[in-house]
Design a protein that fits this description.
The protein has 284 residues and is an alpha/beta fold. Helix content is 31%, strand content 24%. Helix 2 packs parallel to helix 4 and helix 4 runs parallel beside helix 5.
Length: 284
């Protein structure tokens, strides 16, 4: 009986090891979640940011939310994507990258892109330790550069210059695939938006991740006019102490004609393509 149990245990471990290896290599299974032509999911991470851009063959995460919900966020990303071709960290604040070490430990990741800012906070040093031990390549996201990852194109619009304000130094990323464009702005302030407006002729996007959780110091009317999004998503925590999103920002978004979704009210928000049209589904 012991011999039978031992061989059973060895067989189970071997099968799990094979499945893990195949998953790491990107082999998809019949029971895996079906990935469509294009989708971007703004994951409800509470007061923070995390977006997952996916096509049938490629997955890119932009920010991974705070450490408070790290395990849940990592499991959610793994359930959706199983493997990440890239993680972009817009800036080193806890609500945008606190869960990075947990995500990297849970989801096989090909590369990480960050801005040039650093932090002496424990969440930042933990993430760097995991990156170093795992041998994951790290690159700086520089304004004006393009990165082709599978069938997703990443255009780095900012930071154009660095200031003393880490929010204003956020990576602003324009991601495109299959004719759909998403603009993700981190915690970009109006000052950074002005830099972008002064340096690029075309920043239009179908979907806008609203800057700084809908704060009043982001998402100016001029910036909205240039982006002209049909869908805007605000990532913020329910009942947060910052008052996000601000009423003035919501008014500007409505005046710009964007359909507005909020993770504090709608839960996770997924924008996807179906029959050639953009559609939205929420978890609430």
């Amino acid at each position: 009986m012991r011999a039978v149990l031992r061989w059973f245990f060895i067989s189970v471990v071997a099968i799990l090891a094979i499945l893990f290896l195949l998953n790491y290599l990107g082999v998809r299974f019949p029971w895996a979640p079906k990935r469509g032509e294009f989708s971007v999911t703004f994951i409800d991470v509470g007061q923070g940011d995390s977006a997952l851009i996916m096509t049938e063959s490629t997955a890119v995460a932009v920010d991974v939310g705070p450490s408070l919900n790290a395990e849940t966020t990592a499991d959610r990303i793994f359930a959706l994507a199983e493997k990440l071709d890239c993680i972009v960290v817009t800036h080193p604040h806890e609500d945008h990258m606190g869960a990075l070490s947990e995500v990297l430990a849970t989801v096989p990741t090909e590369r990480v892109v960050m801005n040039a800012d650093a932090s002496d906070a424990s969440y930042f040093t933990r993430a760097l330790d995991v990156i170093e031990k795992s041998g994951i390549p790290v690159a700086e996201g520089k304004a004006g550069e393009k990165l082709e990852i599978g069938d997703i194109t990443l255009e780095f619009l900012a930071p154009i210059r660095y200031t003393d304000d880490k929010n204003t130094n956020s990576i602003v990323l324009r991601a495109s695939a299959h004719g759909v464009t998403v603009l993700i702005t981190g915690d970009a302030s109006v000052a950074e938006e002005e830099d972008i407006l002064g340096n690029y002729e075309d920043i239009r996007a179908d979907v806008l991740k609203v800057g700084h959780h809908g704060s009043s110091d982001s998402t100016s009317a001029e910036f909205l006019a240039a982006v002209s999004p049909s869908i805007a998503v605000i990532s913020c925590g329910e009942g947060n102490s910052y008052g996000h999103p601000h009423n003035s920002t919501l008014t500007r978004l409505r005046d710009a004609g964007a359909d507005v979704y909020r993770t504090d009210l709608n839960g996770s928000v997924t924008v996807y393509v179906e029959n050639g049209e953009l559609r939205v589904r929420t978890s609430e």
